[in-house]
Amino acid sequence: MKTISVRDLKAHWSEVEQQVRNGETFEVLNRGRPAAMIVPPRPRPVVAWDDHLATAVTAAGRSAEQTVDFDREGRW
User: Fold this and answer.
1) What are the angstrom distances between the C-alpha of 18 and each of 31, 52, 66, 75?
2) What CATH number belongs to 2-38?
């Protein structure tokens, strides 16, 4: 982990951003005290859900089309 002041962070943001993309972590100091951490993002999980609309509304006892029609009643 590297440390960087707020002033240096502002002046060298593009360099810091590139290092964070490559996995580096920064502790940002404001007047010598820790103020923030800049860490690389974690990969987001991808949900595989083939027929999400059909399975999401089955509990209501209606088809997906019926649910959408019911929800839009009087608005379209």
Assistant:
1) 24, 37, 49, 48
2) 3.40.1620
The CA distance from 12 to 6, in Å, is: 10
Structural tokens at position 30: 């404001």
End-to-end Cα separation, the chain, in angstroms? 55
Q: What are the tens digits of pLDDT across the range 13-46?
A: 999 999 999 999 999 999 999 999 999 998 888 8
Backbone angles phi, psi at 47, to 5 degrees: -95, 125
Q: Which helix (H) or strand (E) holds 24?
A: none
Residue 55: per-residue pLDDT:
62
Residue with tokens 């019926």: 66
| pTM of the predicted structure, to 2 decimals | 0.57
